[in-house]
Amino acid sequence: MAILGAVIKGIIDLKDMLTPESNPVEEQEKVLKELLEKAKDTEFGVHYKFNQLLEATTPSKLFSASIPFFDYDKMHAEWWYKLHKGIENVTWPGKPDYYALSSGTTGNTSKRIPVTDDMISAIKSTGIDQVSALANFDLPAEFFEKGILMLGSSTDLTEKETHLEGEISGISASNIPFWFRDYYKPGEEIAQIEDWDERVQKISDNAKNWDIGAISGIPSWIELMLEKVIADHNLTTIHEIWPNLQVYTSGGVAFGPYEKSFMALMGKPITVIDTYLASEGFVAFQARPETDAMKLATNNGIYFEFVPFRPEYINQDGSLTDDAPTVTLAEVEKDQDYALIISTVSGTWRYLIGDTIEFTDIERAEIKITGRTKFFLNTVGSQLSVNKLDAAVKHIEEVFNVKVPEYTLCAKRFEDDFYHSWYLGTESNLAAEEVALELDKHLKEANKNYKVARSKALKGVKVTLVAPSVFYEWNGANKKKGGQVKMERVMNEEKFKTWEEFVAKQ
């Protein structure tokens, strides 16, 4: 019998039983007051009169009315630039020991997002909450004795002046609790390797020595790692070398587009658990098996606001209009896309994180990521968010019985008007014209705004089929492989021109 595993499982079950039912709305009110109290004497807190906000009957209303929206560029230009001059107490007490580098899906220039000690603690606390939630998934005691393979960015952080820099997954992995280190794979030595291909090769070389029960990382890069292990060891599925693999923890992007190709690498069903760890903080995690939605981390250093994601509130570049309204967690509705706004213990304030979400269960504060504010395809009124595009690609997979793990598109002007020009990543031999017709048909049936657009300026759909590896090489050429890097789902015409030139050379 797995004695240690039984003990760990028992502790998790007991913690789950003893933890009182949470009230997300009350937790958020408490978090906002804690943020304002701790930051009231910073430059930002003094400028925006946090002392007065704390005295208000409803601080949340005055908070949203008093402080403008910020994105990274505005936050850096007005406030965070001072941190790099050595100034302390700018938007949060003291100065950060870490900066999370994030080029994300929107460009080559890395953002440098402060990560304070308070944020490290908040991430750890939310991580413990997620581990505790495993009590809901009915996993056997043996699972809690197996290794957990985390494939993020390198933990060999770069030293700059008085701080360290790296992607948030590398920063988090470099701060794992001591009690977790025996379970953590690939281990500190391999995790510090900067070159992604070299790191994956080392993982493959050591795969037979590990008993892996769970893996964690962005789906596209995990797939490539699994394919490498399978190829190097002449396997049919990953379960031939890791028979006890039971859980995959996804994160950062919707798992749906990868599900078919990912599961093809498995020898038996596994439990998929979604997480939402952004460069700005640990936002949400899946807390129960009855849904694939994620519970917002409402009690760990992040205060959330929500902007209804409607065309009149969104500028062409994905930013918010100055008059865009916000609602609190107490005011949200189901079946409504929202742009996510956060204020955190790292000194981000009313910060547009760039993701859009919808609520699936308001009482539990459970959400799904629906897309990116910059990837909202509305050039000709089609109003397609990424979740609608994901659904269309999944439809193509089902109709043609193929795997399409990657895609990108652009509303591109051709000689006779606009078309949605799609690039689909697949190894299957398909007729692009047939795929284009099916995509167009599905989008018209599923989305009324798209149907209206098709009767006006949007002429139709064009499809180009390429190997999935082209997408990974694009990321490698423009950013780097692995870590938090995600593929752009929607590009503007300038970026799309560069993409098409890149594809032509492959």
Automatic annotation (TrEMBL):
Residues 298-362 form the GH3 middle domain. Coiled coil: none annotated. Residues 389-494 form the GH3 C-terminal domain. One of its GO terms (molecular function) is acid-amino acid ligase activity. Pfam families: GH3, GH3_C, GH3_M. InterPro entries: GH3, GH3_C, GH3_M. GO terms for cellular component: cytoplasm. This is GH3 auxin-responsive promoter. It comes from Cellulophaga algicola (strain DSM 14237 / IC166 / ACAM 630).
